[in-house]
Specification:
The complex is a heterodimer of chains A (203) and B (327). Chain A has 203 residues and is an all-alpha fold. Chain A has one domain. In chain A, helix 2 runs antiparallel to helix 3. Chain B is α+β, with helices and mostly antiparallel strands and 327 residues long. Chain B folds into two domains: 39 residues; 254 residues, Sulfite Oxidase, Chain A, domain 2. In chain B, a hairpin with a 2-residue loop joins strand 8 and strand 9. In chain B, helix 1 runs antiparallel to helix 2. The radius of gyration of chain B is 20 Å and the shape is globular. Classes of the chains: A mainly alpha (203), B alpha+beta (327).
Amino acid sequence: MNRKTLIVLKVVVWVACLAPMTMLAFEAATNTLGPDPTARIALTTGYDALFLLLLSLTITPVRAFIPRLSWLIKFRRLLGLFAFFYACVHMLTYVGLYSNFSVSAMLDDIEKRRFIKVGLIAWLLLLPLAATSTTWAIRKLGGKNWQRLHWLVYPAVFLGLVHYWWQVKPGVLAPVRMTIVMWVLLLVRPVLAWRQRRRSRAA
Amino acid sequence: MLIRKPDGIPSSAITPKERYLNRRRFLRGAASTAVGVGAAALGAGRLADVLAPQTAVHAGAKLQTVKSPLSTTGEQLTSYDDLTHYNNYYEFGVQKSDPAQNAGGLPTRPWTVRVEGLVKQPKTFDIDELLKLRPLEDRVYRHRCVEAWSMVIPWVGYSLSEFIKQCEPLAKARYVQFLSYYDKHVEKWTNETSIFWPYSEGLRMDEAMNPLALLTFGLYGEVLPNQNGAPVRIVVPWKYGFKSAKSIVAVRFLEKQPPTTWQEQNSHEYGFYSNVNPNVDHPRWSQKTERRIGLPFYAQRRMTLMFNGYADQVAGLYNGMDLRANF
């Protein structure tokens, strides 16, 4: 892929990733977030974080199956960081709009409510991944270590989905689609590894 | 999420409600006439609706009402738009905006309410009969959802107790159960849930006889929109919203506590009583505060009141009861 196309694509991805946040900001400014602005912000940002995280996890299998698309790797970090960005806004929404910045209310929630606990753990797991996303950090850690550390994305996305399931009312099946996508993306990885091993043995 | 739906349809392109409703009624009439000669009588009945649409009562039609001393004062009303576009009515979809889009197919006329169980004699009330049973009152109530959001709603109806008296329950009836309309062809969104339908709710007799419990036919002085539980529902303002069953087709008087939908679904999270109580948390969130619908995001949060602010009228019903155990 030439440089120009890459720049255009990067701009497109940036704009697409920022679009939900821009919408929220615009609607907040014009007071058009709908009947329940607090819930709207929380649900949108949580959903976007999971969506982008899953999207970033599709890149590796797509590259493996369609070598022609191997340039997609150039977008994985961007998607991961935007997922983290929305996870942060999601968490701040909880801190500010749900808990009113009350530390005791938050501690109470974390102690008593498993969906909050799990959500917090998922966010904490993303933290070192975001922190080591720079090229400098990758070099410093070395590819192997970096990869090992970034394996944390799997428990993070899994716990993110658990957080989603535990948040909706029992009987509501809204997270089903995302859950299926997650399992496909998780289970395709051993298949890829197996294929890789077989190939290298053949070679 | 990244894919935006196209912008809203310009208002100029929206068919006026009157015309839309008439068209639906016309199509319904036409369809039933087409069924054949055998069904001609039925077709004619529907055609009468078409020829004289003013006889059909539909959402938005004005109701004649009187003031009520039981109305809550000093609260800003939630807008009509929010009341009718932010609904939990899972038979028509689990998203808050779903019922407003999907509930159009709810056949609110003709409509009857069966009265059964421990009564002197089972009977059936026609909706038009119910509308005339007592003068309709404007009753402003706070509405607190178990999900920790709240509204202030100007309902129209009369005390449920007035209706119950007409049902002539036997002395041994201790509970009353309400069953909502259910037709999986009309309410195909029920597939999106693993809930057992029809929706069932219940009250203890003394709760149901409290004058605050409202048999409800309208809001903002008009006939209930379908998504708000047309044509008749109950409103129990000191309990979480899900206790206020919508679109009621049957009322049963029982000796034992009836199974209720959310309690059956998860008895750990939803109790039979479900009184609004800031001191008893939902397992997944605190009930100490709530978000008022329709306010800007920084102004929504407010304290939740015991019995939703109706303690003076209803606290006596629960004397000596452990409200933590009987949540």
